[in-house]
Amino acid sequence: MKLNFNKRDLVISDTNLGPSKTRWRNKTLARAISVALLAGGVLPASGWAATISGVKFVDDNRTGGAREPGEPVFTGGGGIYLKLDSAPATQRPVVEWADFGDGSYSFTGISPGTYKIWQYVNPTSPLFTLMSSPSPEYFASEATAKTITIANDADAIALDFPVPNLTPSAATYINDAQTVANTICNSTGSNVVSVNDNTWPTGLNENSIVIISSSSVVEVPDPTLDIHVQAVCNYGTLRDNDQDGLTITYDALFANFEDGRVEGRDASTSLPFGFGSNVDLKIFDEYTPCPLSYYNDHGSCEYYGLFYNEGVIQAGEGLHRSHADTKNIPSTNVSNYIGGNGGSIDVFGNRVVQNGAIQSGNGGNVVFTESYYYNGSSRHLKVGGDGGAITITSGGMLTGSSQSTTMSGEGGDVSVTNPCVDRSNPSDCHAYELGGGDSGALTVGALYALTAGYYKGHSIYVDPTVSSVGSDTTIIAEEDVVIFGGDNWLLELRELSSEAITAGGKIILATGLSGTIDLRGNNAKIFKAGVQVEIYTDNLLLDDGVTIESLVDAPNGVIRGPAKIIYHAVITGSSQLTGNSNETLPVRLDLRNAGPKVDTYTLAVTSENGWTVSGLPTTLTIEGLGQSELALSFTLPTTPGATDTITVTATSQADSTVVATTEIRVKVAEEPNLAVELADFTAIAEDGGIRLDWETASEIDNAGFFIVRARQDENGEYTEITRITPQPILSVDGSINGASYSYRDSNVVSGNTYYYAIEDIEFSGKTSLHMELIDSATAK
After folding, report:
1. What are the average pLDDT values for consecutive 10-residue runs of the chain, which has 780 residues?
2. Distance between CA atoms of residues 336 and 348, nearest Å
3. How many CB atoms lie within 10 A of CB 736?
4. Are 236 and 214 in contact (CB under 8 A)?
5. Which DSSP symbol is given to 143?
6. How far apart are CA 707 and CA 729, in angstroms?
């Protein structure tokens, strides 16, 4: 007997049933002969009439068994396996592949006998745990296979295979999540802590359920206190108390209800780097098993570790800066001229429901009020602060409602009043290009995603295993949009609106082996890219008569390729820290594998000024969509006011072009001034003078204030610091909790720029100069 092998159909070559070990052979004749040989008999004289056929279908109610009216066919393909029941364990089954269009399969030419038949499910798939159990009946492994008896060679047996629907409607999922959140937040018991004032409670533990009332504005303590509770139910406002960031970890639930707000603080001049503060809301441990008590209370563990948002979550805005002109920008140490970066947001839950607004902080703007010139060589300087990033990760379902908005912070702008004007010497007007900041990146990772809503960022990365995106979804990126996943991944981009996915650079869609991208139901230009659209998948589904090119608006068109794994990683955590001289400062970062497969990272850390950094491992392996904590420590030098930039990188060993980077700005605290804590100081030009306003947060034994003026040299340093008030401006009575002051300097010349600061004097005669809040104005 001679068989011809050609590239028409797949046959699994060993009992591993994996996609990487396959070979091709003739579809009809070879399969019929194989089935007959498996039965241990000869080919039936009737022409191999016995058949087993059916479809794979979507089991909407997840009950398994027979197909019910209205349940659609499953278009994700997949193998159906057939094996003689009495065959040895090492016997290879015969495989038939379900059609990607109508979900159908068919075995023909089967000899009489008793057979096992099952559908293959990848053990790494989120479907595996559910489908591999004996009940409900999914027949998803040889151990749970369906047994079928062929009585004679004329039998025709129909058998459909269910695939559970893991993507119920977004509205249903949101309603179910809201019910669970309300149930937990209406709990009673000794572990429930109700907050009706503005004070974060003490004595909490991992069993505590914290309920913030609608009238409360609660300042959350420093992240180093390690807040870990069972649940947080926020109906009011949670706010970072000190600009070090707001961090809460939970086990069962974090719920931010409709009128709830979670806020990082906007930057102020009292911080060394002017960054907005971050917001981190994360489950304590993604591998913590669901407690039996939770199962008994809610009937399942599907929503254990739920992050639910229908309010507003907002990170802090970067510091805005104002300068007279660009002439005195130094060639080094330009940080005082740059707007602060916006705060970032990091969300991690076993289930995530986004039904509100999430926005990271905008970068700080920079304004040059007088002229735009630089007395030196031409160069470019980005002075606008960068917008904060957003990272959202779900260990299971991630659902976004149609009214939700998820936006990373925008980069700060730079504006100049009178470009390139030098009244005294026009030849000093050189080309000096100033740039605004970049907006933040947006990264979303989940096993399953129903991503309705509005998403915007600098670059957007989305990695679910199963994703459904419809007409209520808009995704906009200044650079690239990358939607990607692993093997057997399904992306449904059906019935999208025109230009639903827009990118200034590329739009990239990619799946691993046996993955599917479903673009049916589209006939408009749903993709708009500034460069091109790239699609990497083995299975692309389109309506009849529709081409991928007809759905794309991009100058370089469409690039098609086979299945491809894309790797991505993100480092989140603190961006600015302050400690005392010689202190060892602990720092915790999270390295997130935002790709679909396990990856090993090579880690490195550098200090700009050679400070001692310890605790970082050389390599780290993380599962797909997993994370691991990086525990570092910095040893600060003796010098008060010293600063450094610590850079941590993680390079993927699977793809060396993938590098996650974060920078941490660190400062040694200034010597404490017990007399005055200055909150704000501004200089404002008015007709005939410059008004100086300042506020104190506290005053102890303070007699009053002197106003000082200074010059700024070409290196940005302040010199010739001189008092302009011979007698102190007296402290206000009762100013122990702070007060407001004002002074007008009339001894100014129109067109000149003046730099001011405050000097306080204690009753003992000791003085302290507050150069950290120096400000300038140009007289009118």
Report:
1. 25 28 33 42 49 88 78 77 90 84 86 91 66 77 90 90 73 88 94 93 92 95 81 96 88 97 85 84 84 83 93 94 64 69 95 95 82 48 87 89 92 71 49 72 85 89 76 91 88 90 96 90 95 96 95 97 95 87 88 93 94 94 91 89 92 97 88 75 92 90 89 76 88 81 92 91 81 88
2. 34
3. 13
4. yes
5. G
6. 8
